[in-house]
Design goal:
With about 475 residues, this protein is an alpha/beta fold. The protein has 2 domains: about 5-255 and about 455-475, Aldehyde Dehydrogenase, Chain A, domain 1, CATH 3.40.605; about 260-440, Aldehyde Dehydrogenase, Chain A, domain 2. The chain has helices spanning about 50-70, 70-85, 90-100, 105-130, 160-175, 190-200, 215-220, 235-250, 270-280, 300-315, 335-350, 380-385, 400-405, 425-430, 465-470; strands at about 5, 10, 15-20, 20-25, 30-35, 35-45, 135, 140-145, 150-155, 180, 205-210, 230-235, 255, 260-265, 295-300, 355, 370-375, 390-395, 415-420, 435-440, 460, 475-480. The strands form 6 sheets. It has a 7-stranded mixed β-sheet with strand order 16-17-18-15-14-19-20, sandwiched between helices. The protein is globular.
Length: about 475
């Protein structure tokens, strides 16, 4: 076991967590602080095919006993883990802030606690589920939900703790064992989670965490026939690769992918509220898959909206994510910052209009100014492709039909935001906008029992509530001839 490291007063292991023990690897990869890029936080154990096999061994060995427990018995472990997350909010928030760059205040007040809620809600939901029982054609029918087996969970680098718990909680509640592969750009909060799993007393091998580079681990993990479920959040190209591997073994696969969501504003809306929410899409420097990055405003209120939008955007403060005054974090990595800048430069070269921003806040740093672009037309690259940075586009429409057409004009369909003062329009347009989730006059309000996922290239399958528990279960219909038993 490698020595533990200190992350601003928090002790973190750089090793994997497999079979209830810390496991090292001969190779390492580094993780750095996005807003202090010269600061290396850790050299993390770099998994390989052999490490992946160890994790699959552990998850497979632990599965029968974990699956044999009742939902209520498994729920005891999940509630205990939720208690520990709540007791360690400050530690988890600091580690995630330094490793991913998200604002410390947001992590403390909202994001980390959502992780605890994920485990609690799924523990209770699984415990409270009732089997469907009915009589038909002289038989008593019963639908039984059986744990599927070891589940592979692959999470992205943005909001890594919340998304890991969001995916792992239903898998565990349903009776599956888990191998979690966190992103290599932000692996540290998963390592802290492993400590809490151990403290919560989970049986060895039920919850395993394997670190490393996706290109080196991906095939070994996704092609292992012992893996019975794969849940992935990340990019479209990676999802295609994972989907092919899942298909080879006929393994159910969910993918929550990118977004290019519209923020549709009608003239009858509260324009101030809409403009404020639009400027809020720069939160986390736009590294949010559901962000409403395409602002589409009714022509008659364009000037009023833009004036308010610029005023709210001017109030953003870029800086150290630990500073409560900061409202815009740094982008996670120089490679990603260069990717975002590439979109801006290509837009400029193609004739799109950079209304504001469009450059680094500090030379050589990972911050990019909040950027607004008016595209030359709807086919502009910056309109049609996910940027995943502080870059919004601005378009106008003349009537409802044109607004809906623009909203639905990309291959994505993760979410949408509509602002209107009309109840009839809220329902009409809310139904018409193509997306897995559409908010009206609000944003990012989530009910954990509601389905979540994308349409088109934004993904397949649904997470949330019973939808996630069903994904992690094999369904059996048991039929017994009525009167044949006593």
């Amino acid at each position: 076991m490698a020595g533990r490291i200190d992350i601003d007063g928090v002790s973190v292991s750089p090793d994997h967590f497999i079979g209830g023990k810390r496991v090292t690897s001969p190779g390492t990869f580094e993780t750095r602080c996005p807003f202090e890029w010269s600061r290396k936080l850790a050299d993390m154990a770099r998994g390989n095919a052999q490490t992946a096999a160890l994790a699959a061994d552990a998850a497979s060995a632990a599965f029968p006993a974990w699956a044999a427990l009742s939902a209520a018995e498994r729920g005891v472990f999940l509630h205990r883990l939720a208690d520990l997350i709540e007791a360690n909010v400050e530690k988890l928030a600091m580690v995630e802030c330094l490793d991913m760059g998200m604002l410390l205040e947001s992590l403390r007040l909202r994001v980390i606690l959502r992780g605890a809620a994920n485990f609690r809600n799924y523990a209770d939901l699984a415990t409270g589920r009732e089997e469907r029982v009915w009589s038909s054609r002289g038989t008593l029918n019963r639908v039984i939900r059986m744990p599927a087996g070891p589940a592979l969970i692959i999470t992205p680098w943005n909001a890594p703790f919340m998304l890991s718990t969001w995916k792992c909680a239903p898998a565990l509640a349903a009776g599956n064992t888990v191998i979690l592969k966190p992103a290599d750009w932000s692996p540290l909060s998963a390592s802290v989670l492993a400590d809490l799993i151990e403290e919560a007393g989970f049986p060895a091998g039920v919850f395993n965490i394997l670190q490393g580079l996706g290109a080196e681990l991906g095939n070994a993990l996704t092609s292992d026939p012992r893996i019975k479920r794969i849940s992935f959040t990340g990019s479209v190209p990676t999802a295609r690769i994972i989907g092919k591997a899942a298909a080879e073994n006929i393994v159910p696969f969910t993918a929550e992918l990118g977004g290019k969501s519209p923020l549709l504003v009608f003239a009858d809306a509260d324009i101030d509220a809409a403009a404020k929410k639009a400027a809020g899409q720069f939160d986390d420097s736009g590294q949010v898959c559901m962000a409403g990055t395409r602002i589409i405003v009714e022509e008659s209120v364009k000037d009023e909206f833009l004036a308010k939008f610029h005023a709210y955007t001017d109030a953003h403060v870029m800086g150290d994510s630990r500073d409560p005054a900061t409202t815009m974090s740094a982008l996670i990595h120089p490679v990603h910052a260069e990717r975002v800048l590439g979109f801006i430069e290509r837009a400029r070269a193609a004739g799109d209009t950079i209304v504001r921003g469009g450059k680094r806040w500090k030379e050589g740093a990972n911050w990019i100014e909040p950027t607004l672009i008016v595209p030359r037309d709807n086919q502009s690259e910056v309109v049609q492709n996910e940027v995943f940075g502080p870059v919004l586009t601005f378009q106008t429409f003349r009537d409802e039909a044109e607004g809906i057409a623009l909203a639905n004009s990309t291959a994505y369909g993760l979410s949408g935001i509509v602002y209107t003062g009309s109840e009839e329009r809220a329902n009409r347009v809310g139904r018409a906008v193509r997306g897995g989730t559409v908010w009206v006059n609000t944003f990012l309000v989530r009910d954990l029992t509601a389905p979540f996922g994308g349409i088109g290239i934004s993904g397949i399958g649904r997470e949330g509530g019973d939808y996630a528990l069903d994904f992690h279960s094999d369904l059996k219909t048991l039929q017994i001839l009525e009167g044949s038993t006593s």
